[in-house]
Amino acid sequence: xxxxxxxxxxxxxxxxxxxxxxxxxxxxxxxxxxxxxxxxxxxxxxxxxxxxxxxxxxxxxxxxxxxxxxxxxxxxxxxxxxxxxxxxxxxxxxxxxxxxxxxxxxxxxxxxxxxxxxxxxxxxxxxxxxxxxxxxxxxxxxxxxxxxxxxxxxxxxxxxxxxxxxxxxxxxxxxxxxxxxxxxxxxxxxxxxxxxxxxxxxxxxxxxxxxxxxxxxxxxxxxxxxxxxxxxxxxxxxxxxxxxxxxxxxxxxxxxxxxxxxxxxxxxxxxxxxxxxxxxxxxxxxxxxxxxxxxxxxxxxxxxxxxxxxxxxxxxxxxxxxxxxxxxxxxxxxxxxxxxxxxxxxxxxxxxxxxxxxxxxx
Length: 362
Prior knowledge:
362 residues, 5 helices, 13-stranded mixed β-sheet, 14% helix, Phage tail proteins - horseshoe like beta roll fold, single chain
């Protein structure tokens, strides 16, 4: 079980420690390595070099080395390096003036327009196919100096989708897949088949509210395409969602990121409630090795059966983050972050899986 770094066509291994993190709720994935260098030999790579991260002969990240630190003395010589996948360049970039991106246009085409403007070698893969932005509601016009990612993310939020990246460093438009794998995470008292080495669970309601209200106005320029719209409807678009699990009196009122209709504000309110619910219930476990019971790498956006007596969980849960780690002390381990199976969707209800869901997440 290995984590390897491939730079300029050559693969490096035998690091003192190595770690790569893949997330469904973050655009760019990250890695870091530490090694002991041979005295007197030049550094075999440097910041800016393109690279691939390979876990058990499978590429999991394609990007660049961004930071290299070398510490040395008469008796030691160590190297630490870190970086991100290709989407890191999109995260860091800001936009120049761009002519209006006229609707109707899909989210995929909008992102491709931004990527093309920046000259990045990144593809866009759409697994959701959300509704196109129409002339009566949306005309995209980024401000000079605006973050490229914040610009496209506001339209992703408008369609309640996530922007993440794949092993090739390409952008993936996605939601929770609902795909169940034939694997399990288990910590049952007295069982000999447990595979959870350690775990952590917390339930935090401080970021959740009973009532979510989003307000906005319609895009007055886009309304030229919509015909007559009463003035009161132009300036007073709103959406409300109630999370009955949270006590009354807790209210969050926000202004939507862009011009939203009543329905879009309502969907945005649902999305906000569910995201906060997912983030408020934090469950993570560590297992040995990098592969599951079906000999596949543990992967994000898949649902796995969790039976954990200590945490009071017996339900399918969605893997939203995977960290593959190697160190001389612990060997090869994987840390999994898990959330409700229906996280990142407009469905706020608790998971109902084979009538076994119970405990903190059921």
